[in-house]
Amino acid sequence: MHAATPTWTTLFIDFEPDAHQRGLAFWRDVTGYAVSATRGADDEFVTLQPPEGDGHLRVQRLGSGETRLHVDVHVADVDAAVPVAEELGAKLVERPAGMPYAVLTSPGGLTFCLVPSAELRRAEPVRWPGGHASIVDQLCLDIPPRLYDAEVTFWNRLTGWTLTRPTPSNEFGRLRRPPEQPVRFLLQRLEDDQDAVTAHLDLATTDRAAEVARHERLGARVVQRTDRWTVLADPTGWFYCVTDRDPYLRMVR
């Protein structure tokens, strides 16, 4: 372990201003979570709070720019964690004076924040009418081929989690999260190039067909179906996936 080892991880949907209201309402309803009181200088931050356990999904209203996903890495000491992350390959973007967080980018250009530890209790999946269950629990990093090795090595060393690398026939690597952590890391090696690493959300569910139908009723649109996951666009046009993974699994195998 080192100073930047995560004690918790939080996924942050950063909505462009015009999409914020629709996006927040959709993800509130998809998760079944309550919306916290607003916070921040411009009331731009909220947490989606599960019925039991601590929040691991938050929403930000951007001042400008396109909708994106970033991750908050919770650490015991932000000041001590920043130089460790830099040594591992991160770039410091902002360390606001008097504020408890630091904004950085990964070697591949993905924005993440180092923030103080607070949350401790992992939420359980929500069970829906009809009996199936689901939870948002995965960060999928979409990594262009030329950046893959550096990006994967960085997140492996930052988290300290065991890495499973992709095979020639499978483009997905994985980091084995500890059972108390709320967020999995999936490491997708893209076929085509792009300027920087991006990311999207994945949900796990016990019944993908029922879960996808529920999302469609809430305003989502199916983009693609595969044998193991369905790609959807939320009402703002932002892409995410619903997968066949077991939402009750406490550790990646």
Low-confidence stretches: none
Mean pLDDT: 94
Structural class, from helix and strand content? alpha+beta
The number of distinct helices, counting runs of at least 4 residues, comes to 4
Topology as a string of helices (H) and strands (E): EHEEEEHEEEEEHEEEEHEEE
What is the CATH fold-level name of the largest domain?
2,3-Dihydroxybiphenyl 1,2-Dioxygenase, domain 1
What is the CATH homologous superfamily assignment of the largest domain? 2,3-Dihydroxybiphenyl 1,2-Dioxygenase, domain 1
Report how far the terminal alpha carbons are from each other.
Answer: 21 Å
CATH architecture annotation name of the largest domain: Roll
The domain count comes to: 2
Compute the gyration radius: what is it? Answer: 17 Å
Describe this structure in words.
By secondary structure, the protein is α+β, with helices and mostly antiparallel strands. It has 2 domains: about 10-115, 2,3-Dihydroxybiphenyl 1,2-Dioxygenase, domain 1 (Roll), CATH 3.10.180; about 125-245, Roll (2,3-Dihydroxybiphenyl 1,2-Dioxygenase, domain 1). Helices cover about 15% and strands about 35% of the residues. The chain is built from 4 helices and 17 strands. Strands 9, 10, 11, 12, 13, 14, 15, 16 and 17 form a 9-stranded mixed sheet that branches. Strands 2-3-4-1-5-8-7-6 form an 8-stranded mixed sheet. The longest helix has 12 residues, at about 20-30. It is globular. The two termini are about 20 Å apart.
Short description:
The protein has 253 residues and is α+β, with helices and mostly antiparallel strands. It contains four helices and 17 strands.
